[in-house]
Please model this.
Amino acid sequence: MTLFRWLLAAACVAAVGAVPPKPTPEEGLRPVAVDRVLSIGGSSGPQYLRTDAKGRAYLLNAGDLAVFRIVNGSPARKPEVTFERPQDPIGFVADAAVCAAGDAWVLLSRSPRPIRFFVGSKEKPLPQPEWMVTGVACLGGQPAVTVTPALRSAGTPGRVPDRAPKLVLQWNGSEWVPFLDRIIDYSEMPIPAREGFHKSKAASEVTVAYSREGAVWVAQTAFYHVRRVTASGRVATVLELGEPAVELRDLTAEERREFEEAVKPSVGGPGASSPRPAPVPRRTLLGAAEGPDGSLYLLVSPKGGDGKLAIDRYSPVSGKVERVALEAAARNQVRSFVAAQDGLYWAGATMHNGAWWLPWEALDAASWRLVPEVRIR
Model:
């Protein structure tokens, strides 16, 4: 064995055997940056991290419609599947979900036909829900959607009807049927009045995590409010922190650029004026995911904090909420947060925003502190 190989082997043994120092709560955990996937067409469009029923992690490069497997923070060099582009353009992909076996995907596009269902590489067209869709999921191998109380029918877009929709609808093979009833009443939610801001939209923006036991975690993104709903529709657990008030903020320069890019296909010819982006809610809960141990993990941007992110962990066994700080700046553009076989992943809204990974070993060794302010009932 040459000296170089001996030194290399020794370094590998030392790296494997070394135990990273346990960070203090003040230091926080340092997530590992995930390498960017190879872009087929040079796309820097939306990206989405998702996991299947076995906890395998996938990254969807929505600009290229290409799906990559990720293991231990490293994406595969070649996509597992690339979706065939339909004749009618998909446009900007606002959300995505993978089905349990990892072989089918549901996309939410900003197009006249918003719900796109791909089995393998081919699209399986579906009738569209009558309500405006805010997010997508895949339950039992079939598409599901979260909706906002506004019709998307031609001639009355955005009109709020007298009847309220269900919170989650599922495709049963022939029609969209209720999966989860509206379980949160936002009618009296204290939202400041501001021009161009829609209260119903903020009230309906939730992140939904699906439990292995068939239950559903519904987390409001604008403030700290989480409910666990059983398969029978019973609210089993509620986590609350602070008051249910929504703080508004203007878009950052980067978000304005992304907004303009998203609406560009719908804007007329040269000289046409672009829609003006409205103020948006400041997001407190950036993501929710149930881990292999049955605990709920939340990616939190604490109000009044120092601009850093944190991970909250709720254990149904202990009945406690604990928090560990992250050495990562708070990013309102975070849109993906998943619990995989090898740890927690989250990603920015677009390919150039980056993605991060925290292995379970690092989380187990972290200095968690109790968050007694969270009300649990």
